[in-house]
Amino acid sequence: MSKLVGTLGKIEEALASFKLPVWYGKTFCKSDDKWNYFVFNKKQFNRSGKSKIDFNYDYQVHIIMENYIEEGFEQKVIKKIKENTNLKLIDQPMQFNYVQKNNTNLVVEILTLEFTKTFKGCDING
């Protein structure tokens, strides 16, 4: 495990429970490695809805699997992230994407899950 703390550390811990490699920001897998792993990152920091003092932190969790992501696996990941971090799943469609693994005929399926956390601005000022 890395030395990530706070929400990032909790996300990393939740993903590590699936016994797959976990990377922050980008992968360090080589083309001959098995491409079944997670990558997670911060996506954005912005004002929250109608409030001028509240903010949202948005995070992404990328599930990357050779061939396909097992049916229902994404739901297990969502549940674990929510339990470990209290992040909320963003209410929007999430698309599956496909790439070909380098120098092979193998398809890699990728799903990006997006989560958010609201931070009350009054906590800064108070």
Provide structural commentary:
With 126 residues, the chain is an alpha+beta fold. It contains 3 helices and 6 strands. The protein has helices at residues 6-16, 73-85, 122-125; strands at 22-24, 37-47, 55-66, 88-89, 96-100, 107-119. Strands 1, 2, 3, 4, 5 and 6 form a 6-stranded mixed β-sheet that branches. Helix 1 (6-16) packs antiparallel against helix 2. The radius of gyration is 16 Å and the shape is elongated.
Number of helices: 3
Name the structural class: alpha+beta
Please give the number of β-strands: 6
Instruction: Write the H/E string, N to C.
Output: HEEEHEEEH
Shape: elongated
* Average pLDDT taken over every residue: 87
Q: How far is the N terminus from the C terminus? A: 34 Å
Major sheet characteristics: 6 strands, mixed
Radius of gyration: 16 Å
How much strand content do the residues show?
35-45%
Low-confidence segments, given as residue ranges, are none
Q: Can you give the helix content as a percent range?
A: 10-25%
